[in-house]
Every structure is written in structure tokens, then in C-alpha cells.
């Protein structure tokens, strides 16, 4: 059962708050909510949210890990998607989506939009139709576990590998690719890149290139482990093989209900965030990088760091 035992207010301040957006980080993931200013949710909202989340929970695992849908009618209509990592089995996907739904309903239940990033899956809902859209303006960046570094020469090989993977994953039928690179004496490094399957190839490319650039631009970062999440795509790099062997068909199912494609409402969501090592408040480097990302002006968001007692998404 996920529980946030200890919520520590982090120092990121709201620059000019028109939004109530809150982002919370924990060891393996993060969530972001936008609570209604008055905390008031209507009965229709609750009904729609429940039916949307149930549909995602039920259908995503059996649709090769991706489902998008809408529920209800305006003004209470909600849009959502759930997506699992491309290498994750249907049962693991089901349990991850379940966890993400639990986070959303417990922690964001007064929010008209929310996103939950876990290691093996992603969940998002909003009262604006964000499906199929990604133009770079809504980045949420959550680099996780930047605790260990590599020799610069190894790191350079890893960066090169990841930039190739970021360029190639959008060409894959599932907008997903995982692989490894030989870095010499230090062995291999492993990477994974994935876009949400509602995106076009061009939108995916935009997202992965943007995520890569956002993280590395101007800095030859040497981390041997990082996870980057955004609203449209994710990237993970590590020194061990963290992904499962996978085979995917060459022709992916659509995984999107017809209902979701009909509205032209625009999402109002804007969130940028950054993850640090959790439970280490003396980590000045990590804090500095939070400020750096927040200061890029992509978001005005309160950020919290959570010490999570229970490991919520470890199932293996
Ligand atoms: C809404 O709920 C949050 C969390 O319980 C609380 O901090 C906030 O003050 C509430 N806002 C209003 C306007 O009641
Ligand atoms: C949200 O959760 C809180 C605490 O569990 C509960 O008191 C409240 O009624 C819930 N609100 C909705 C809209 O479900
Ligand atoms: C991105 O899309 C949103 C919603 O469709 C729009 O408001 C915003 O201006 C767009 N940004 C760019 C840079 O095109
Ligand atoms: C962070 O990275 C270190 C070293 O690679 C690893 O031992 C640790 O388990 C990682 N932590 C998480 C939460 O993944
Ligand atoms: C890519 O992003 C840029 C802005 O960052 C936007 O102008 C362009 O329309 C996007 N292209 C696609 C295909 O989403
Ligand atoms: C990575 O290592 C290289 C070589 O030591 C160094 O120049 C660079 O500043 C390091 N990157 C960061 C972000 O510390
Ligand atoms: C995964 O693939 C690797 C390389 O092809 C192979 O050595 C390994 O046995 C496979 N693992 C499983 C569990 O199938
Ligand atoms: C906190 O950070 C310091 C310095 O980077 C490190 O030595 C220490 O092990 C970290 N503590 C935890 C609990 O991660």
C-alpha cells in the first residue's frame, strides 16, 4: 500500500502562482497534481474520474501497455492515458497501472489534472484533451537517481548511445526501444527510450530530442544512472540491464477509444519538475539542479520531496 510517511516541504517557491500545481518526488517516481483552488469536486467529476481510471486500468495491460480514453461530457469531461514500459509484461503492467491509479486517487483526488510517473508505467488525466499533442511546451522533467558517476570517457560513450537511441525509438512501431552499448573495461551501459503511443512519429522525435537536450544541453553530465520523465516520453540509462527481454509485434494496436479523439479542448497543464535523490536534504548539487530546471521558466510549481516508507512499485 503506498503511503507517504513524511512529506518534506522543499524550498522551491511558487514564482507567481496562478496554479496550485504540486509535484511530489519519491524514490522511483513522482506525481504532479493540480488541485482545484477550492478543493471542490463535483459528483460528475468523481464519476468520470472513476470510470476513466477503471477503463485505463482494465484495458492498458491487454493493449500492449497503452490505452487512452475519455469519460463524461463537458464541462466535466476527462481525458486520460495509461502506458507501461514497452518491455513490461501484461501482469506487471497491470500491477503498475494499479499502483499509479492508487497514487492518483489518494494524492490527487481533488485535482482536475494529474500525472504519475513510475518506473514501469505512466498515468495522466486532465480535463483538457492533451491526447496526441506534444509540442514541447509542456515538459515535466524528473531525473531520478543521479547518485553515481562514470569516467568521462565512459559517460561520453553512454551519451552518444542514448542520443542515437533517442533518435531511433520514434521510428519503432511502439515508439519504444531498449538496448545496450559496450563501454570497454567498464562493461556495458543500458538504455531505454519510449514515447506515449498517442504521439505521432514527429511528435515523439520532438519529445525525445527535447528531453535529451534539456538534460544534457551545455553540460557533459557523467551520471551512470538516470531516469528522465516528461509528459510525452521517458528515458532511462543505467549500468545494469534493468529492462526485460521483449518482443513486440510490428503492427501495434491503436489502443485508443474513439471517444478520445473527438474533442479539440486544449490542456491547460503545465508542469516542470525535477527529481533528486530522496531522503538526502544535504544534497546541494541536486537542489541546485532543481532550481536550474524550474528557472527555465517551464513551470511554476511547488515541489516536495517525499520520503516513502513503502516501496510502492517493486513487484519483482
Ligand atoms: C485544499 O486542500 C489542501 C490539502 O488538504 C489544503 O492545503 C488547502 O489549503 C486547501 N485549499 C482550500 C482553498 O481549502
Ligand atoms: C479525497 O481523499 C480524502 C482523504 O482520503 C477524502 O477525505 C476526500 O473525500 C476525497 N475526495 C474525493 C473527491 O474523493
Ligand atoms: C503548444 O500547444 C499548446 C496547446 O495546444 C499551445 O497552447 C501552445 O502555444 C503550443 N506551444 C507552441 C510552442 O507551439
Ligand atoms: C540508484 O543507483 C544506485 C547505483 O546505481 C543503485 O544502487 C540504487 O539502487 C539506485 N536507486 C534507485 C532508487 O533506483
Ligand atoms: C516540435 O516542437 C516545436 C517547439 O518546440 C514545435 O514548434 C513543433 O510544432 C513541434 N513539432 C511537432 C511535430 O510536434
Ligand atoms: C563530467 O566529466 C568531465 C571530465 O572530467 C567534466 O569536464 C564535466 O564537467 C563533468 N560533468 C559534470 C556535469 O560535472
Ligand atoms: C535475454 O536475452 C539475453 C540476450 O539475448 C539472453 O542471454 C538471456 O538469457 C535472455 N533472458 C531471458 C530471461 O530470456
Ligand atoms: C547524502 O549525500 C551525501 C553527499 O552527496 C552522501 O555522502 C550520503 O551518502 C547521502 N545520504 C543518503 C542517505 O543518500
What does this structure look like?
Among the domains are: 102 residues, Gnk2 domain, C-X8-C-X2-C motif (Killer Toxin P4, Chain A); 99 residues, 2-Layer Sandwich (Killer Toxin P4, Chain A), CATH 3.30.430. The protein has five helices and twelve strands. α1 runs antiparallel to α2 and α3 packs antiparallel against α4. The radius of gyration is 18 Å and the shape is globular. The two termini are 16 Å apart. The site of one 2-acetamido-2-deoxy-beta-D-glucopyranose (NAG) has 5 residues, from loops.
Query: Sheet with the most strands?
Result: 8 strands, mixed
Gross morphology: globular
Poorly predicted sequence stretches spanning 5 or more consecutive residues:
1-18, 257-300, 307-316
Q: Helical proportion?
A: 25-40%
The helix/strand series, from N terminus to C terminus, equals EEEHEEHEEHEEHEEHE
Query: Strand fraction band?
Result: 15-25%
CATH architecture of the domain at 30-131: 2-Layer Sandwich
Gyration radius, in Å: 18 Å
- Per CATH, the class of the domain at 30-131 reads Alpha Beta
User: Which strands sit side by side, in order, in the main sheet?
Assistant: 1-12-2-3-6-7-5-4
| Helical/strand content category | alpha+beta
Kindly report the average pLDDT value: 74
Assembly classification: single chain
Number of helices: 5
The ligands bound in this entry are: 2-acetamido-2-deoxy-beta-D-glucopyranose
CATH topology of the domain at 30-131: Killer Toxin P4, Chain A
- Report the end-to-end length measured between terminal Cα atoms: 16 Å
CATH superfamily of the domain at 30-131: Gnk2 domain, C-X8-C-X2-C motif
Number of strands: 12
Family: Belongs to the cysteine-rich repeat secretory protein family.
Pfam families: Stress-antifung
InterPro entries: CRR_secretory_protein, GNK2, GNK2_sf
Protein name: Gnk2-homologous domain-containing protein
Amino acid at each position: 500500500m503506498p503511503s507517504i510517511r513524511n512529506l518534506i516541504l522543499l524550498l522551491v517557491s511558487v514564482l507567481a502562482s496562478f496554479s496550485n500545481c504540486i509535484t511530489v518526488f519519491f524514490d522511483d517516481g513522482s506525481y504532479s497534481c493540480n488541485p482545484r483552488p477550492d478543493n471542490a469536486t463535483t459528483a460528475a467529476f468523481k464519476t468520470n474520474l472513476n470510470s476513466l481510471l477503471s477503463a485505463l486500468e482494465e484495458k492498458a495491460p491487454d493493449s500492449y501497455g497503452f490505452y487512452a480514453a475519455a469519460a463524461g461530457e463537458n464541462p466535466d469531461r476527462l481525458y486520460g492515458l495509461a502506458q507501461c514500459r514497452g518491455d513490461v509484461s501484461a501482469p506487471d503492467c497491470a500491477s503498475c497501472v494499479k499502483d499509479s491509479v492508487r497514487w492518483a486517487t489518494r494524492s490527487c483526488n481533488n485535482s482536475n489534472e494529474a500525472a504519475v510517473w513510475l518506473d514501469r508505467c505512466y498515468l495522466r488525466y486532465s480535463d483538457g484533451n492533451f491526447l496526441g499533442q506534444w509540442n514541447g511546451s509542456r515538459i515535466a522533467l524528473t531525473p531520478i537517481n543521479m547518485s553515481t558517476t562514470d569516467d568521462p570517457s565512459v559517460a561520453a560513450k553512454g551519451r552518444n548511445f542514448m542520443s542515437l537511441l533517442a533518435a531511433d525509438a520514434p521510428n519503432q512501431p511502439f515508439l519504444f526501444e531498449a538496448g545496450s552499448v559496450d563501454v570497454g573495461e567498464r562493461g556495458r551501459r543500458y538504455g531505454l527510450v519510449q514515447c506515449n503511443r498517442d504521439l505521432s512519429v514527429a511528435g515523439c522525435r520532438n519529445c525525445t530530442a527535447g528531453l535529451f537536450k534539456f538534460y544534457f544541453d551545455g553540460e557533459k553530465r557523467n551520471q551512470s544512472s538516470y531516469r528522465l520523465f516528461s509528459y510525452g516520453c521517458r528515458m532511462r540509462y543505467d549500468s545494469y540491464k534493468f529492462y526485460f527481454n521483449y518482443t513486440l509485434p510490428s503492427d501495434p494496436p491503436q489502443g485508443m477509444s474513439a471517444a478520445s479523439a473527438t474533442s479539440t479542448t486544449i490542456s491547460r497543464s503545465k508542469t516542470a519538475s525535477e527529481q533528486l535523490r530522496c531522503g538526502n536534504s544535504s544534497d546541494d548539487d541536486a537542489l541546485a539542479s532543481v532550481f536550474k530546471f524550474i528557472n527555465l521558466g517551464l513551470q511554476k510549481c511547488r515541489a516536495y520531496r517525499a520520503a516513502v516508507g513503502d516501496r510502492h512499485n517493486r513487484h519483482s
